[in-house]
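Exercise: predict the fold of this chain.
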Amino acid sequence: MTENSPTDFTTAKSDPRTAGWRSDELTPPDGTAWDLLIIGGGTAGIVAAKTAAGFGANVLVVEAARTGGDCLWTGCVPSKALLAAAHAAADARTAVRYGVHVDGVRVDFGEVMTHVRATIETIEPDDSPDTLRAAGAHVAHGRAKLSSPDTAVIIDSSPGTSAGDGVRVRFRHALIATGSSPAIPPIPGLAEADPLTSDTIWSLTELPQRLLVLGGGSIGCELGQAFARLGSHVSILEEAPNLLPREDPHAASLLLAALADDGISISNGARLESVERRDNGWRGRTSSGSTIPFDRVLVAVGRTPHTADLGLEAAGVTSDDHGHVVVDKQLRTSNPRIWAAGDVTGHPQFTHVAGVHGSLATSNAILGLHRSVDTATIPRVTFTQPEVAAVGVAPDQAGAHSGLTVRTIDHTDLDRAVTEDIRRGVTRLVLDRRGRIVGATIVGPRAGESLAELVLAARQGLRARDLATAMHAYPTYGDGPWRAAIEHVQSQLHRSAPRSVRKILASLARRRAH
């Protein structure tokens, strides 16, 4: 999702840094203006480019670093590959609960990182400039800066080239998809400790003995658990009262217990106030007065949009106080020619959001449609063990909305969870007065997959009875949502029975009166 800065983590075979400047790609086929200029070659930009090219539009993608963005190089792909290795190590250590004894589990961090690099290299061609060109888009390696409401200047940023004055191009529409990068808070001493982020942690060649993680959101929990399971002593510091502050507290408590089982030290409700050098490493002092020793620190406390030096003011594009590009429901900016998608807009920072919004913005721009974004049913998944997956209204928020009901199935009673002896989990549905599914939270193995049908249900306004009457395979973790729906339907039937009886009696009474 981001227009990333180069790192030494891996070198792609089709890395645009080695492809060189192709000035011929800056001239639109009609010689006048590009139908769509896309600034940024991450997920939003890639999906937008393929969508626009599929409509027959003349498309130019300008990327300053390498196509693929955060998701491919430093986000979803490497983190999930790392988690796969970490979970495999944990599964081997705990297999004894099934009567399977795995002796001498050993983690080779170098080989783990080789697996991560291989995963990136396998997926990278799908996001490469060559693939974009094959789809019908033009790709230029450079930095684009908007210079007027319908023009931009593109400066070659290939290695070994001078900046120069750049090349001016005109566009009928433009899409800003420059993404974001990890934020580093101004904590005294933190910069001197050479903090890692989700962008730079992949440069590690040795496993840190002691890792401090700032931030207990999805990124902090995922990477914290991964490094703990690979052998680091991990401490997580979260300023909010709970881990995963945006999720249901009950779900967060289940994850907290799992992380504690992994040996992770967790401090909630406290912030890092200072960092100082010690003879044997570093020490962080918290707002609660405690100290945390560490060798490396990973900062995962939010991201900053890439909008600096984009020329937004010259193009008449408004940004908010945090630097996000302001868009309407159709993803159009204050300049009717210019659209935006992905992290740069301030919408939830997920790859699936960037991809869908990139396609939607492009369809609106090229075809003149007026499709609006749906922010009510955006799925979100934290890929820890157990996974935490959610959509829509969180169960703890139901009380603030009139007429909402929560149905809960504890996985201690879920047959598939019992067979696998993974009973720390829960499924919770949030339903409105009409029984429509407006939210859900699932904690457990592959919760993200179980969530899929609930996202569809919330999107389509389906009711609990629609889910309850659809046959589900047994035994699966999908039994959780199904059983919650069945329980809701049964409770409604029991509640409605007395009213039905009263209606019959009232009818009989009227007949007697006649």
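Check your answer against the key: Confidence is low (pLDDT under 50) at residues 1-20.
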